[in-house]
Design brief:
Elements: H1 15-37, H2 39-46, H3 50-75, H4 80-100, H5 104-131, H6 138-145, H7 148-167, H8 169-190, H9 205-209, H10 214-233, H11 235-240, H12 248-294, H13 299-314, H14 316-328, H15 332-360, H16 366-383
Helix pairs in contact: 1-3, 1-5, 1-6, 1-7, 1-8, 2-3, 3-5, 3-15, 4-5, 4-8, 5-6, 5-15, 6-12, 7-8, 7-12, 10-14, 10-15, 10-16, 12-13, 12-14, 12-16, 14-15
């Protein structure tokens, strides 16, 4: 491809390049979540218990959690396209290994390293998308680059589960390897390259964390995503209280489609109203939790609440990553690696906290636990004028390399 990146090209969204980043996110989410929909086929095919098959998700999450920061620090001097290609090649290799292996230990190791690839990818995608455009378009660029996540959750996972039930789980993983191969060519053709950080630009991890606003944004990430994952992880028992135990698939589809709407709305307003969007999303989610807690859990209330929840969640990743990247400036990739760790910690804590609440109190306690966490998140966001400024100010600095 032509490595010259003209300044005027940054005045509009580079759609193909941003969609390549969205495809990378799509593969990340699909690789992570698809085993959950194929547990019976996997356990039967490998003659293992469903609980052991479920550890495929755990191994992936552990890889993301443990490797995101070290790999980001290791590769921050590399050109950005090389790092992106490395992550996609990781998915190609480790999904292929999963598809062909019959050794559970080898598969779990492959899943761990696939998760490590995802951790590095998530640390990279937001900063990469922002560097492609002028400051006034950075939020919209990130929204487009993040669209792969709700598409994977709402359409990709059900489609992959359906494919696995018809053709077997191995072909599903092989198909994801095929997507990775296509994406490698797409990146080489359409995605511009940018330099990594020079030795003089590097800042220690602790110093990045202490940058004004960075810690506050990560605090909101932890509390907001913990609240989300308590309900999302244990949505089935929560729905059972409304007589909807058999409609989990429909509810998740509603959530996913609403999330797509949320990210579309976010893309329209993020560059001018980031702070308001964060505060409004948290407030609306809190209101939904109050309604869930006070009202009789009828199907109508549940469906409406799930749709509104999905709408507020759809833009969350884009809003929070934009706020974090703005606060961290040129050290955005390092800060975003902390976001990967914080986000995955919230997923793990959501599973643990939700499980304890379900066992000792019941699913009716979920709305109140969620409300408490969201109030904490709101308090942090309201006070964090640097992490969530009233108006976004971003610096330009587009310096592609061959």
């Amino acid at each position: 491809m032509n490595s010259t990146f003209k300044h005027e090209e940054a005045q509009r969204l580079p759609i193909l390049a941003l969609l390549a980043l969205a495809m990378a996110g799509f593969i990340c989410i699909l690789t992570e979540t698809i085993p959950a929909g194929l547990l019976p086929q996997i356990s039967q095919g490998l003659n293992i218990s469903p609980s052991l098959a479920g550890q495929w998700v755990t191994a992936y999450a552990a890889g993301s959690l443990l490797a995101a920061i070290p790999l980001t620090l290791l590769t921050r001097s590399w050109s950005r396209r090389v790092v992106l290609l490395s992550t996609v090649c990781g998915f190609l290799l480790f999904n292929t290994l999963t598809a062909v292996s019959s050794d559970v230990v080898i598969i779990l190791i492959a899943r761990f390293f696939a998760g490590a690839s995802a951790g590095l990818a998530w640390s990279l995608i937001a900063g990469y998308a922002r560097r492609m455009v002028v400051p006034s378009l950075q939020g919209r660029a990130l929204a487009l680059a993040m669209v792969g996540t709700p598409i994977a959750l709402s359409l990709g996972v059900p489609a992959g589960t359906w494919m696995g039930s018809l053709l077997g789980w191995r072909l599903t993983f092989a198909a994801m390897s095929g997507l990775s191969l296509i994406l490698i060519g797409w990146i080489l053709l359409a995605v511009p390259n940018y330099p990594g950080q020079s030795a003089t630009q590097k800042m220690p991890l602790g110093a990045v964390l202490r940058l004004p606003g960075v810690g506050a944004v990560l605090g909101v990430v932890l509390t907001w995503m913990l609240a989300h994952n308590i309900l999302y992880t244990y949505i089935a028992p929560f729905l059972a209280s409304a007589g909807l135990a058999h409609r989990v698939d429909v509810v998740l589809l509603i959530f996913g489609m609403a999330a797509l709407g949320g990210i579309f709305i976010t893309g329209k307003i993020i560059d001018t109203h980031l702070r308001k969007a964060v505060l409004l999303s948290l407030s609306i989610f809190a209101a939904v939790s109050v309604i869930f807690g006070l009202s009789t859990p009828t199907p109508a209330v549940i469906y409406a609440g799930i749709a509104v929840w999905g709408l507020t969640f759809g833009g969350a990743a884009t809003l929070l990553q934009t706020a974090l990247a703005d606060a961290a400036g040129e050290y955005a990739d390092v800060a975003l690696s902390m976001n990967v760790v914080t986000w995955n910690s919230a997923i793990a804590l959501g599973g643990l906290t939700g499980g304890m609440l379900l066992e000792h109190v019941g699913s009716q306690s979920f709305p109140w636990a969620i409300l408490l966490l969201l109030l904490v998140a709101l308090g942090i966001a309201l006070r964090a004028k640097q992490g969530f400024p009233a108006e976004n100010s971003r610096e330009t600095g587009i310096t592609p390399v061959a």
